[in-house]
Structures are given as structure tokens and as C-alpha cells.
Amino acid sequence: MDNKKELKVSAIENGTVIDHIPKDKVLRVVRILGLDESEDLALFGINLDSKKFRKKGLIKVSNKFFKDEEINKIGLVAPNASLITIKDFKVVEKRQVEMPEEIGGYVKCINPKCVTNHQNVYPQFKVYVREGEGIRLKCHYCEKTTKQSEMEFVG
Amino acid sequence: MNPTNLKNRNLISISDYSKEEYLKILDLAEEFEKYPRQDTLKDYVIASLFFEPSTRTRLSFESAISQLSGQIVGFTDASSSSTQKGESLKDTIRTVCNYSDMIVMRHPLDGSSRYAGEIATVPLINAGDGSNQHPTQCMLDLYSIRKTQQSLDNLKIALVGDLKYGRTVHSLVEAMSNFNTEFHLVSPVELKLPSTVKRFIKNANLNYYQYTELEDVMDVADIVYMTRIQRERFSEPLEYEKVKNSYILTKDLLQGSKDNMRVLHPLPRVNEITEDVDDHPKAYYFQQALNGIYVRQALLTAILGLK
Ligand SMILES: [Zn+2]
After folding, report:
1. Residue B43: strand, helix, or coil
2. Residue B131 in contact with residue B167, Cβ under 8 Å?
């Protein structure tokens, strides 16, 4: 398996590998998952060779196993990411990140008159995925839509 | 929970209510139209928080409350509130909850009412949040349509003017999509109804027709809902000059309209309906504004659990 080769570089005994992250989104994923503020040992790599993408990013976290609702938070920035669960140096599970129905916190509402851009309000959105239109976020507060191309990440 | 139990529920957006709940409010408003002066709100204090001035909406709410013997506290624009001193919306709302049983709020920021409603420990009615929602306007539009047509079902409604930015139009399309409406949309090309709003029509499997000339819909419509076209909406002043006169309703245009047809307008009107229409039996916009009182009385008492 491909993964074994990669894992040899810095194998983890128990934990999670988040693979196929766009290379420019690795630090964003670290921040969304709060790995920069946790005690868990985490390693990340960028510009790794990939079959699917020209270059990809990857994160390994020791002794950490993510619940779906935790990991799906990164669906917006790394929609093709996969999650590999490692136990005793072996891959025991591999699953895809899924797009969450709702997200909050790290995207800015496109509407300059939205209350989230003026008061200390935690931004929240409903996520819509439509064929040919990409991802759209509907603001829980002002009800305006932010398109994928307009998304600005914050925090 | 009873699906039409509105007690202690905020009214922020027209989509917060179901079809049954619209109808419950309209029925209740009909009772208030018969007996608008009661003491239903006698022991109640309602906060009327207008962070931006809107005389028309404020007077309608305050008159609705006063006629039911309720007490009003609040302010009429942000300069007379502590917002001027830099207080956050959150702190203002928390404070006001100590003094009142319900909040009516108007605010210039989009989404401010949803946010305030989440903080408030008393129910909150949105009296307009920026360009987003103004649900009590929509409820009074529904009331006026039902009153003039006897029913909300199976009507042909012409929406005229600025269909792109007009929030009252968007809410009305959303609400009327529950009633098998046929929509006739009349606007300049630049101000067509956005696709996000057309989706309500499509999702309900209903039809809409688009026009650029007002006269094309005058003989089909049961309701002609006029709105103002604002000069600021056009990037080219010439474009505005070209279209501004095509969306003016005159007495002549009323010839050939259906007998049951009525003209509505959310007001204030500028010049999109000529004054000689005002006394015509098909002009309904001033009565429409008056209906706002009964609908607001219905909402206040239903949300306080008094009706
Ligand atoms: Zn927003």
C-alpha cells in the first residue's frame, strides 16, 4: 500500500493521518481543528507528491481519533481529504471527509452590512452544494449567500 | 408542540412561520379589525427599539400597542439610545429584557434581529433588519390580499418595479408560493427577480411570467403590487431615465382591469402611482397600511400567548 511507504518517513503508532489536503490549506486545517492549541503531537507536510493532485499536504496526529462532526469542519477547505486511522502502526480505517450541513466560525459573510461583520457574533452558515454551482453558504443571520469563489477564511 | 402555537416564539423572517401560522394570524387580525380597542395588553410593557428611524412602521406598532392598552418603552433612533455611546447590541438587548415583556426591533444591519432574538429572554418581533427581512409588512400584505380577494388561493399576482432589491417583494413571493399563486413579474431587465427568490416558485411547482411593460399585466392580474424604482439602483443614469416612466400606474391603465383587481403598494409612494388613482375603488394601498395595525395586534397578542 502507498500509505505504508509514506508512513515510514515518520510513522505513528496510534493516531490519525489526514491525507490529500490542498497544499495551501494545511495550516488552515491545523487551525480549524485546533491542533496548534492542543497537547497532541502533530506533524504536517506540504508539497508531497500525490497521484490525485500534483502536490498535496498531509497531517499526522498522534493518539487522536476524530469524530465525524469534528473532522467534517474541514470539508469546506479540504473537500477531498481522507482520514486514515492508525492503530499499532497499521491502517485500521480509511474514510473521506464529508461536507457538513452547517459550518461556523472561520468563514466571513460576503455581505458588508451583515451583523456578523459589525458585532462580536460567531458567523454560522448552512452549506448548499449544487451541481455546477459549487459550494454556497447561506448566512444564518443576514440570509445572504456567499459563493465558493467569494469565500474569505478568518481566524 | 402545537404547530400553530406562536407563544414565546420570535418572528424574525417570514420563513419562521408555516402556512397554517400565517392563516392563524390573519384570522386573529380579522377579529382585531372588528374590535381594535381592547385591554388585552393592559399589564404588559413592550420595548420599541428603533435603531434607525422608520416613522411609518413605528407609529403602526405603537398605535397597535396603545389601542390594546399596552405600555411602550424604547427609543426612536440610535442617537437617543446608548448605542451612541458604543454599547454593543448584545448589551442593549440584555438590558431591555429586564424592562419589558416583548421587543419590537428595527435595526440597519442585516441579520441583527436574528442575533438579537438569540440573546433576548423575551420574544422579539423584527420590524426590519437592514435590507433583509420585514415580516410584519409581509403579513399585512397577505391580510390585504385575502381581504380584497376573499381567499389567498389560486390568485394571479403582478409584482411591479424593483424586483431585485425589494425585500417586501421577496417575502411576498416566498409566502404566496404556499397558495398556488401565478406570478406575473414586471421589471426593467436590470431589476429582475433574483434566481434565489424564483426558486421558491419553482420548488412549489408554480409558474411565473416575466414582462418589461406594466400594461401587459393589467388585464390578467387579481393584485397589482407596485414598488418604487430607485435611481441609486442603476449604474447608468440614462438607463434609469429610460425606464422610470414605464412603471407608473395611471388611472388610464386601470381600464380593462378585472373587477376584483386591487392595487397594493408597501408605501411610501413617490411617483409610481399617480394621485388620480388614489380615489379609485381599485386603489387599496392606504387601507393596506391601516391593516398593518390589526396584523401587528394579532402578532403581539399571539406571541405573548394572550390569544
Ligand atoms: Zn451574513
Report:
1. coil
2. yes
- Reported in sequence order, the residue ranges of chain B that DSSP labels E, i.e. its strands, are 45-50, 71-75, 102-107, 124-129, 156-160, 182-186, 208-211, 223-226, 262-264
Residues 29-68 of A with CB under 8 A from B: none
Class of domain A15-96 as given by CATH = alpha beta
Task: State the ipTM, two decimals.
Answer: 0.91
How is residue A114 written as a grid cell? 451583515
**Model pTM?**
0.89
Instruction: Show pLDDT as tens, one digit a residue, over chain A (155 residues).
Output: 455 444 444 678 999 999 999 988 999 999 999 998 888 888 888 877 766 656 788 999 999 999 988 899 999 899 899 999 999 999 999 999 999 999 988 899 999 999 999 999 999 999 998 878 788 999 999 999 999 889 888 87
Sheet of B45-50: strands edge to edge?
Answer: B71-75, B45-50, B102-107, B124-129
Whose grid coordinates read 451583515? A114
C-alpha distance from B117 to closest chain A C-alpha (Å): 11
> Residue B123: which residues within 8 A CB-CB, separation 6 or more?
B8, B9, B10, B11, B102, B103, B303, B304
Which of the following CATH numbers is that of domain B135-289: 3.40.640.10, 2.60.40.730, 3.40.50.1370, 3.30.365.10? 3.40.50.1370
Residue A95, sorted as left (phi over 0), alpha (psi -120 to 50) or beta, turns out to be: beta
CA distance B224 to A128: 34
* Coil, strand or helix at B89: helix
Does the annotation count B94 as an active-site position?
no
Test B115 with A120 for CB contact under 8 angstroms: no
Say if domain B4-133+291-303 classifies as CATH 3.40.50.1370. yes
The backbone torsions φ and ψ at residue B114, rounded to the nearest 5 degrees and listed phi first, read -60, -45
